[in-house]
Write a structure and sequence with these properties.
The protein is an alpha+beta fold. It is built from five helices and ten strands, in the order ββαββββββαβαβαα. The radius of gyration is 20 Å and the shape is globular. The model has no long low-confidence stretch (mean pLDDT 94).
């Protein structure tokens, strides 16, 4: 591992980052993670997800002292009362957040100091599918448009390479573009 004297770049501890990568290369079983969320309906379109514990690096994680609570709902035009972003907006947020984190980590590994990363995500959806009004219309997004503006101490070509590599490594981008099997179980009372 060769990091040099620069131990922090883009807010990331480079020594810890490269040590983590070296450890996972030596012990691939440490790369297995299980993330979890629970959700409870509150009223109408309003529901709340709670996120705290997860399994990773060979053990149950206990680093989070507080749980994260994420309220979701729908705007009035979709029969809700704006209790939070709607689920497809959370998907856009998840994609934006994952790609941004990947850009920061890739830039850090490639010794690029970033000064700004901004993005806009636009999802186009025809609600007739989700409302069951047209079986020929997809339930979810028909397309997602992504626009990044990245600045740093590298050439335009290098910054574009960082973004492309981040796209290749983004877990959420992979799930959105390639799908993921979902096992649905139901218990009734």
């Amino acid at each position: 591992m060769s990091v040099g004297t620069d131990t922090k770049r883009n807010g990331v501890d480079t020594e810890k980052m490269f040590a983590t990568l070296d450890l996972i290369k030596a012990q691939p079983e440490l790369a297995k993670f299980q993330f979890r969320a629970t959700n409870r309906w509150i009223d109408g379109a309003h529901n709340r997800s709670t996120i705290k514990g997860f399994y990773g690096a060979g053990a149950e994680d206990s680093s989070r002292s507080e749980e994260f609570q994420l309220d979701a709902g729908e705007p009035a035009i979709l029969l809700g009362s704006n209790t939070g972003p709607n689920p497809v907006e959370y998907l856009l947020h998840a994609l934006a957040a994952c790609l941004t984190i990947a850009i920061v980590y890739v830039a850090t590994a490639r010794k690029v100091k970033l000064t700004s990363v901004e993005s806009t995500f636009t999802g186009e959806l025809d609600a007739r599918g989700a409302f069951g009004l047209d079986d020929g219309t997809r339930n979810g997004f028909e397309r997602i448009g992504v626009s990044f503006r990245v600045s740093g101490d590298a050439t335009e070509e290098k910054l574009r390479e960082v973004v492309e590599r981040a796209r290749e490594r983004s877990a959420v981008y992979d799930m959105v573009t390639n799908g993921v099997p979902v096992d649905l179980n139901v218990t009734t009372d």
